């Protein structure tokens, strides 16, 4: 089962997202602020994070920064949601490490589609990594890998 962490201070939004993703077979954990998100990330196996931009005690930028400095959490995809999402904000979030950005109010069908796409990309990336050739004996150990990931 794939596990998703939903981080939003709005308990109704958190619950709506959680129920929609659970209906689709995902395991979902909830957090209501960046501190609780950090604790959940360190204690649980999480495959994708969905996080609101503005919350008491911090923002999506704080969550992203904490995740990206960790070797274990860094590769986990991040979907950011916000009622104030603009193209400029989405660009900045992407530069910081977000994989997708969506505007609230959320279309739950679209969110589920984006989650499915992120998991498909994860699977594709794992497949590419598993097909990387190992250096031959006597090689200098360097392997050049051309990635198609965006």
Topology:
Layout: E1 3-7, H1 11-23, E2 27-31, H2 34-43, E3 48-52, E4 54-55, E5 58-59, H3 60-68, E6 78-82, H4 87-96, E7 100-103, H5 108-130
Parallel strand pairs: 1-2, 1-3, 3-6, 6-7
Antiparallel strand pairs: 4-5
Helix pairs in contact: 1-5
Number of helices: 5
Shape: globular
Series of H and E elements: EHEHEEEHEHEH
Q: Looking at the chains present, what oligomeric state does this protein adopt?
A: single chain
Distance between the termini: 26 Å
Biggest β-sheet strands, sense, barrel: 5 strands, parallel
Number of strands: 7
The structural class is alpha/beta
Rg result? 17 Å
**For the residues shown, what is the average pLDDT?**
87
Strand order of the largest sheet: 2-1-3-6-7
Percent of residues in beta strands: 15-25%
Can you tell me the residue ranges where pLDDT is under 50 for at least 5 consecutive residues?
A: 134-150
Name the helicity range. Answer: 40-55%
